[in-house]
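Weekly modeling sync, notes
Attendees: S.R. (lead), two postdocs, one rotation student

Agenda item 3: backlog of single-chain predictions. S.R. asked that every request posted to the team notebook include the full sequence so nobody has to chase files. The rotation student volunteered to paste the first one in as an example of the format we agreed on. Action items at the bottom.

Example entry:
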Amino acid sequence: MSQDSAAVPDAARKLAARRRREIVAVLLFSGGPIFESSIPLSVFGIDRQDAGVPRYRLLVCAGEDAPLRTTGGLELSAPYGLEAISRAGTVVVPAWRSITQAPPPAALDALRRAHEEGARIVGLCTGAFVLAAAGLLDGRPATTHWMYAPTLAKRYPSVHVDPRELFVDDGDVLTSAGTAAGIDLCLHIVRTDHGADAANALARRLVVPPRRTASDLGHQRYLDRSLPEEIGADPLAEVVAWALEHLHEQFDVETLAARAYMSRRTFDRRFRSLTGSAPLQWLITQRVLQAQRLLETSDYSVDEVAGRCGFRSPVALRGHFRRQLGASPAAYRAAYRARRPQNGAPETALRPERAERAERPERERAALGAGAGFSAAALAGHGLAEAAEAAKPPSDAYAARLPETAGRTAGRPVLPGQRERPVG
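Predicted structure, as returned to the notebook:
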């Protein structure tokens, strides 16, 4: 959903006279990762007019009282405070230190005021949580790092979260996914302000692709096993390591809680406080990741992949895989192999729906067609809660919407140029 801002003029507010779009305020907080924080500083804070890149004026603002401590124990001293935001036409929040903590009220007030006066507000990666806390994402499409997307959708149900996008431009509020996607969004802003030539010149200086979109990546959406660094010193680290080594076995969160010598409720609370994700969601994500690897590197059938990743059935695998990666396992494998032909095979790809039919057993098709025959209570009673979950339609807060549905969501019109995708 990387449409140009010009395509959604109704979303933009009139910019206050004292604000200028080329004045960019970057809002930094203590505890923020230094790499994400440096992205807007590198894009908007260096004079590259010799390379054909128009100059921005950068205001680095402290979002709270100094000193600001960042990755590796470094201390930063921002030259400006929140008051400088009043001059900026573009305000960037590159990261937030913890998705479990509430941002400072003063910073949220400054963001709301800037938005009311027509400033463009940008949240990179976990910065989306700050925008959401300020109420700027209510009723809007947005994205963030895929690992934190379920938490963002659950905590702010009025936000239409889509973790499958590199970035989302909703006119005067923009958000991006993980670290590299922050660069993509910043380049998109330069392209919107000054055209493709300026953005391409900047991309050459940064030695990055000038324009990536989610469609460029196809179905090759990579997940990883990354967890916050602080979990390494926590007793739960041993339980997490055991889970990653035994994904091929069928176990549930109760098993992990027992290994941690905790009640399920205590385990859920501790796990969420460390990772920002519910343990069940994390476990499902790791199983999907393992399935992704097996589909890329083996010739196992979808049924066999499901069993080797700890899913109770291929129905459960298919539902979770599509929900997280936007494609069925068979379609993902076909697209992956088409991009990486083996033994000199030509680069021809099956259409996703044909790939699904080619590998979907008749009995699985019948099971999918008879979804009403699954009893959630019966499935849970036989240890098949994952299959029951996979049979549910995606959450409205988490799944991408078809245009006709989006047109009825929170009274928001369909955005011109918005890329359509089928609901998983």
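Discussion: group reviewed the output briefly. The mean pLDDT is 76.
Action items: rotation student to repeat for the remaining queue; S.R. to check formatting next week.
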